Every structure is written in C-alpha cells, then in structure tokens.
Amino acid sequence: MADAGAGDKTEEVEVEQQNEEEQTASPKEMRAVILSGFGGLKAVKIMKKPLPTVGKGEVLIRVKACGMNFMDVMVRQGLIDSPPKTPFILGFECAGEVEGVGEGVTDIKVGDRVAALTEYKAWAELTAVPAKYVYPLPEGMNFLDAASMLMNYVVAYILVFDVGNIRSNQSVLVHSAGGGVGQAISQLCKSIQEVTLLGIASKHKHDSIKDSFTRLLDHDVDYVQEVKKLFPDGVDVVLDCLYGDDAKKGYNLLKPLGRYILYGTSSFVTGETKSFFSFAKSWWQVEKVNPMKLFDENHSISGFQLRRLLYQQGAHEYVRGVVIKIFKMWEDGHIKPVIDSTWAFEDVPEAMQKLHDRKNIGKITLDPSMEPKPKLQTKGNKEKDKENKNEQSAGEGTSQEATDAKTEEDDSAAPPSAN
Amino acid sequence: MADAGAGDKTEEVEVEQQNEEEQTASPKEMRAVILSGFGGLKAVKIMKKPLPTVGKGEVLIRVKACGMNFMDVMVRQGLIDSPPKTPFILGFECAGEVEGVGEGVTDIKVGDRVAALTEYKAWAELTAVPAKYVYPLPEGMNFLDAASMLMNYVVAYILVFDVGNIRSNQSVLVHSAGGGVGQAISQLCKSIQEVTLLGIASKHKHDSIKDSFTRLLDHDVDYVQEVKKLFPDGVDVVLDCLYGDDAKKGYNLLKPLGRYILYGTSSFVTGETKSFFSFAKSWWQVEKVNPMKLFDENHSISGFQLRRLLYQQGAHEYVRGVVIKIFKMWEDGHIKPVIDSTWAFEDVPEAMQKLHDRKNIGKITLDPSMEPKPKLQTKGNKEKDKENKNEQSAGEGTSQEATDAKTEEDDSAAPPSAN
C-alpha cells in the first residue's frame, strides 16, 4: 500500500520506555500533544513543554477540554496548505479557564470560562491565544460541550445559513452525516421549516443517527441512484467534505438553482499516511467549471474553509458573530452537541484512528486531566507485539500503534524525529 | 466593422412602401413584432398575423403593455442558446386582459387583468400563453407598471434574496446600474438594512440614478481600482450581467465568503449584429474554476438565467412564488417600477437601439395601442436618406433605420427574408 511507509521506519528511534514520574510535567512545564513530523500515528507524541507566556493581545487558557477534527488527521499527514514546521503542538479548539491576559486585552479577565479557536496549540494543558479567537462561554455550558461545539457548529452555521442559504422546503444532501459537522448541520436545519435532509453515512451508523436525517444513504452503494430515485429533479444543496469523485457526483445531483458546497477534502486521506496518488487523483478528477456553465444550468459552486477564513483572511469579527448566535441557540435549547467519546492526551493516536476510520458518531473530544487507558505493553514485550501486529490487517493494527505512542519519551529538547 | 454586414444586404427586399390601411389588422388578424431573421434592426418588422387560438391549459391575453429586455437584443442577434426558427413573434413579457381560457384553466377567467412571462410571442396584440406563466395583477396596478416590473423584479428578487443571499451590512457591486434590473436590485436591497450598493453605469446617467446607489462608478474608467479604494478587502456580492472581461474583474473583487453571480452575457453584443469575434473573446477570456480554488479562497460562483429556469427547467411554481412576493412588495409601497420610455410597436427598432446603447434609465416598455412616431421618409426620398445615412456614424444612423422598419410590408404569408 502506498501509505504504509514513513511511520514504520523510525519506530526504533521513537519508542522508548520511561518512568511514570516523567509523564507528569514539572511546575514550569506542561503536557502537550506534539506532532514530531508529518506522517502516521507514531508522529503524535505526548511531551513536556515549557509553559507558554502570554503576549500582547493574548489570553492564557488553562485547557479543560479539546475538540478533535478531521483537519487534525490531515495536518498529521501534511495534507494541508502551508503547514507549520514540526515539531508543533496539535489542535484547533479548546475550552477552559483564563489564567492570564496580555496587554491590551480588556474584555476577558482571569477566571473567565472561555472557548477558543486556535491556530494549532490547542491540545496542551495551557495555551496562549490571541483574544480575537477567544469566546466567553454562556452560563451553564460545560467545557466539554463548549469544545465539542465550537468548530463544528461554526462551520455548520456558516454552511447552512450563509453559504448554503438553506430555506424552507429545500432538500439537502450531507456527506459524513454521522460526524460532528454532520450532526450539527442536522440540528441547525431543524430550525428551518420542512427541510428534507439526506445523510450519507456508513451503514453501521444508520441506526444511531436515523432521527437526525429524513433519510440515510450508504456511501458504499450507488447513492447517486438513490438520491435520483427520491429526487428526480435533484436536490437544492449538496454539502461535500470529501471532494474527489464525490464532487462531480454532487454537482450532477443539483436541481435548478442548486448549490454545491465544498467544505472539506477528506478524500485526500486514504491510509494512515499521505498518499500522493490519492491526492493527485482527487485533484484531477474534478472538472473545472466555466461560469457560463453555471449560467446555463442555474447552479452555484461554493468553497468554505474556516481555517483560511479565520487565520489568513482575518474574518474574526464575522466568526465571533456566528459563535454568539450558536451559543444563543444552545441557551435556547435548539442545539445540543453530540459527543462520541472523550480521550486522554495519551490516547490521541487511537482517537485519531477512530476519526480516520469514520467510526465516530458525533464529536471526539479530549480531556487533559483524564487518565490514559491501561498500557498494553512495555519495552520487554515489544518484539512480540510487533509479530502479532504483522498478523493483523493494516486497519486492525492501529489501536496497538496508539498504545505505542503513549510511551513516548519527553524529548522536547531533542531535535525533531526523522519522519 | 464586423457587425455591419447582414442587415444591409437585404435592404432592398425588405423595405417597401404600403398603404396606411394595410397597417391595421383585419378582424381575424392582429399586429405583431416579428423577427424575420437573426441580425440587425432591419430584421424587426411589424406584420399582420392570424389571431392566436387558445390551446389546452392556455390563456389568451389582449396585450395592453409589453416589456423590453436586453435579452431581446441578444435574441435578435441570434446570441442565445437554441433560438427558435425565424420568423417568430418577439417578446418575453406583457400585461393585459384575459380574452379567453383553454381547457383545464380554472384559476383565471375572461376579463382578469394579468401579466405573463412568455416564451417569445409577447409583442403582439393578442397572445396565447400557458397558464403556468400567467399572474393575476394586484388591484390598482396598471398594465404598463406590470409589464415593466415583471421580469426585472423577478430576476432582481432571485439575485438579491435567493442566489445572492444579500444580508445586512454587506456590500454589493451592480453592473448596468441604470437599467431595469439594476434599478430593481437597488429598490429590493433597500429592504435589507445597511447594504452598501456600488453601481456601475455610464457617466451621463450618474445624475439621474444617484439616489438609487451608495456610490456610482464609471465602467469606462478603472472601476476595479475605485472599488479597491472603497473596499480594500473586496465586496460581498458582484452581480454581473456582462461576462467577458468583467467576470474576472468581478471575481477578483470578492472579499472572503464573497459571491460572484453571472446573470447575463451582454458583452457578447458589440455592434448591431452578432460578432463571432466578441462572442469567442468573451467566452475564452473567462478562466475556468476548480472547486478547490473556491475552497482555498472562500468564494462562490453562481449563474442565473430566468429563461432557462422557467421554460426548460420547469421552475414555474418557484417563479410564481417570487411574483407573488414582488406584487406584495409593490402593494406595500416598497417598490415602484422606473420606466424609461414607452414605444409603439412600429418604433421597436429605435427602442431596441436605445437599449443596446444603454441609453435607457429604467425599463423600456411597449404599448400596442400607441401611435408610432411620425415617419421621416417615403419610398421617394429613400435614396437621399441612404446618402445622408452614409455620412453619419454607425451609432447615429440607428434612429433612421428604426423608421425604415416602420414601413415594413405585411408579408406574413411570404417566405422568411434572407437575412
């Protein structure tokens, strides 16, 4: 397989045993989830890092909960535009208590309960975030709910109301219906009268999410034919987070005045590590469109990418407005996050693999204070485990790899690993 | 010039004098504006045609007013997809009194005052239209207002509220700001709080329409730089009815989450007749877009074409809903059509040239009962007039050509002319 290489080569260098004591950070250090190099699950490590200092305009947050997104998997594989240099602390969202504020920050004070959309650095015990990306929590919202809602509902809100402009009596096709964004889209669409929601999800999820969608379809059967049977004229909106093959299918399912919206490219991810083949395939199989074709067919094509909007395009005031609306909807009882599971930092690789395999229903969250799952191995039985692993299929081997990652040495002072 | 050919060659065949009496239709005939062949203004003729019969599901309308649209100019030049065979009756909208209803028509009765979006055939004393394209008028709306509002406001409404999803505090760039659709967009946007409207129009119109727009720009100066000065981050929505060069400019003026909307291709029209060169140039200079680019840039591209939507894509129920909303807004005093001028059937060529030259401010309408302008010539002084015309510039010659067209013979039984 194209994606089995990079992770394995450096295994000997990476995995070393250490004392339990070393896992706990000293008073001037904190634990953080680090990406040591782009690639497989082994590149994800728990390390001790110096405590961050709070700069001008920044807020220092004692992190109580984090959210995991498919983007984190893509970051790990290096499948994003202008990635930072490794090693760096992973994670794009967290919630917690304010422990310090930098010069110029006037509307947030120490002790405030907040959530934040961070440009990396969220998966740590402490993080310093520009105040423009920090949002006070409404009364009664716990940190886990906040971290699980923030990014997914911001994305879903913008897709449903702004880019998608979904209105009464319209039909919407949603990919990855069981994921965090899919569930958020479903809840937000319920605030619009008579929206028909078609969700695409793996068959095994259908039972768990059947109340969220008007109809569920299986991505692995010919969903295009299914949609055409239900809506011979097509659907009003297609929300596509996959790209590649599904982009063309989605566009071709649009009815007149229909809108195809691309908000993710998860089809770039195939195996555990980056596959240039799948990347290139996804890219090239999508036809370019002349605006004249859209004029002839009465169609729209949109792209939406929150990371770009927030950090490169400076739309933080707009996003803040959306967060306020979402928190209001939560207070009014219109939305409620669906949390799949919560994990310790040490178990991030296993959680990531679950997300990669689309086995989650709702949001995957992290809790820095959580005890990791019991270890399955020590250095002594490493060789035996490796043999066992070789007998397993590539897909099944991942939870074993995840426990490997838990035993990472704190090598924050060491040079980045080779992978 | 590339566009001076087709119309002139057949001049001798087309222009013949006739008696005043022949201009009036017999009881079994009606007067209609006919396109005898695709090309210049001379292909537009007033002819006597047999009265239309009302078919199943149709409504027979005694036409009291008609609207002219830029699409009529494009139809005349053959610059549209799947044009009908010539000769045919021109015109896409009219208003009048119901004179008969076909089998199966239950919600409209003889004597009703209605407006209609017709697939051609509107510019005649009588027209038979499928009931699905016929809309009852609200009390107090006169035929001229109805015919002048219908298409422009339907287009504008869909652009502003559905495809454009224009919201409070957004900025909108509108091409052809002085035209019927431009004026309708301006009025509809006033129902949304704090919309900044940038209108592009010829300098000489600026005074007349300055109250409709926040700011007016001149298409002939570098409007891109002007917009960038006013909105360094770009605008939220670009409404482009030109295509060609302006498509790229428009797209590049979008801010994050901005939407470029193509709803017309009037740049295909250069001179009086079709120019394949300008057509091809417009087509090719517009870059094709990969959805991935939109994803990277947080942009949307949309196309909207009412004719296609209504007659090929069967969205008549949707359009009826829009008409009802527009008529309600008119009743509530929120909108009021801007009529540039009203013309007799015989003066259609002159009116068309005015529209072509973008000299109108608001809607150009026709009144079948109106007396034509006094004729300037007879067969006797034809040669002299031709000489005079040769001394004029191409642009100035048009009103003369228009009066030529008034003297067309009724040759409804004759074969189509050669151009």
TrEMBL record, chains A, B:
Keyword DNA damage appears in the UniProt entry: no
Protein name according to UniProt: Synaptic vesicle membrane protein VAT-1 homolog-like
Membership in a protein family: Belongs to the zinc-containing alcohol dehydrogenase family. Quinone oxidoreductase subfamily.
Amino acid composition bias (Acidic residues), ranges on this chain: 13-23
Region (Disordered): 1-29, 359-419
Biased composition (Polar residues): 392-402
Domain of life: Eukaryota
Keywords for this protein: Oxidoreductase
Limits of the Enoyl reductase (ER) domain: 39-366
Magnesium in keyword set: no
Segments of skewed composition (Basic and acidic residues): 1-12, 370-390
PROSITE patterns in the cross-refs: QOR_ZETA_CRYSTAL
The encoding gene: LOC106459547
